[in-house]
Design goal:
- With about 375 residues, the chain is α+β, with helices and mostly antiparallel strands.
- About 30% of the residues lie in helices and about 25% in strands.
- It contains eleven helices and 14 strands.
- Helix 5 (about 170-185) packs across helix 6 (about 190-200), helix 6 packs across helix 7 and helix 7 (about 215-225) packs parallel to helix 8.
- The longest helix is centred in the C-terminal third of the chain and has 18 residues, at about 250-265.
- It is elongated and about 75 Å long.
């Protein structure tokens, strides 16, 4: 098989690109003028595959400004080169170049009747997340696919954080805490039973609808009761999430639970700070071998304003890396999608504030295990 080389297109390649476009497509062809514009756009990538000095295929990757998304707008392989794996190689090279400039997700569209391409993308790990009606010139529909392409390589700078997915809709806090504890003590069990035990200890009883979630006071106590050092950073005083319930009796329950948490914290060495936790302090904690568990608003992830707990695993110049314990299997997510999830530092700053008028910032930092301390009474499982 002839060796394939890749390079980015220049204006001298336009004649060959137009000729290949006309051979590969009858509709929705990219014009000479458009090829020129894409080549002149510094952000985008027009990747060429060459064999024996001849153009064998291309992939056009668009990089939208102010996002971490890349999109394969068009991909073409010369008819006589099909069946040699060149399409897959172009996708991989496109992903590599996009990841090199900090893009997190690669997206693409494919005709609903292009079964070969659909099978290729699914084999490469792409998942369908939508449909575009009447997308092509002939009024054909398109399926939308995406795949995460940027992954964090764990290093000795930060603790290695094992991943544990939550097993219920209401235990993101316990699952995140389990991951943090297992990162600083390798003998920490990661089991559903322990996840539910922590929820029983840390739940606020009521929150939004359904089962109550867990607050920072309860999670800090759960970590302390298991022998870990714990520090809680909470930007507001008083009962949290009170505004999420309308019933006065439920509000009173929230207040009593809060009073109980404060009483129990008073019997421990837990440091309680009524200040927001800065990203600089998060990074400092990680470098000291501690692992933060952060309350976020999921609006930046899925346009839902639900409080959600995640574990912070690492920080670099561009991203904050999270373990998100919620795996949406129905949407095609896998555990790999939610490990070391890179979030732009600016987006993380907005994400780590829950609520509109006086946003709540809450975090629990889990430190190494203490020696010689007994669990306090009244809160153990």
């Amino acid at each position: 098989m002839t060796r394939t080389t890749f390079r980015n297109a220049s204006l001298a390649d336009i004649d060959a690109l137009v000729a290949l476009e006309n051979r590969c497509f009858r509709d929705d062809r990219i014009s000479r003028r458009s090829f020129r514009r894409f080549i002149d756009m510094p952000r985008d990538r027009l990747v060429l595959a060459e064999q024996g000095g001849e153009l064998a295929g291309y992939s056009l990757v668009l990089m939208k400004a102010n996002t971490r998304l890349a999109r394969i707008y068009s991909i073409a392989v010369a008819p006589e080169r099909r069946g040699e794996g060149l399409g897959e190689a172009l996708v991989r090279e496109s992903e590599r170049q996009a990841a090199d400039v900090g893009r997190i997700l690669m997206r693409l569209e494919v005709r609903t009747d292009n079964h070969g391409a659909i099978a290729l993308y699914e084999r490469l790990g792409y998942r369908q997340f939508g449909t575009l009606r009447d997308y092509y010139e002939d009024h054909g529909d398109a399926l939308r696919f995406e795949r995460r392409i940027l992954f964090y390589e764990p290093s000795a700078e930060f603790p290695e954080v094992p991943y544990y997915p939550q097993t219920t809709d209401f235990t993101c806090g316990p699952a995140s805490l389990l991951m943090a504890m297992a990162a600083v003590a390798h003998d920490q069990s990661l089991t559903t039973l322990e996840e539910l035990r922590i929820w029983r200890e840390a739940t606020t009883i009521f929150m939004l609808a359904g089962h109550g979630g867990c607050g920072p006071h309860g999670l800090a106590l759960a970590a302390w009761n298991r022998g870990y050092n714990a520090t809680a950073w909470i930007s507001q005083e008083g009962p949290l999430f009170r505004e999420t319930v309308r019933n006065d009796d439920k509000k009173r329950v929230l207040e009593l639970v809060h009073e109980g948490f404060l009483h129990d914290i008073g019997q421990t060495g837990i440091e309680l700070h009524h200040d927001p936790l800065t990203l600089e302090e998060i990074e400092r904690a990680l470098r000291e071998g501690q692992v933060p568990v952060i309350l976020i608003s999921t609006w930046q992830l899925n346009r839902s304003r639900v409080p959600h707990w995640v574990t912070v695993c690492a920080v670099d110049e561009q991203f904050v890396y999270l373990h998100d314990p919620e795996v949406d299997v129905e949407e095609g997510e896998t555990i790999a999608d939610n490990q070391y999830l890179p979030v732009d530092r600016r987006i993380f700053d907005r994400m780590s504030r829950y609520g509109r008028n006086q946003p709540l910032q809450a975090a629990v930092i889990v430190g190494p295990k203490r020696t010689g301390d007994a669990r306090i009474s009244g809160t153990s499982a």
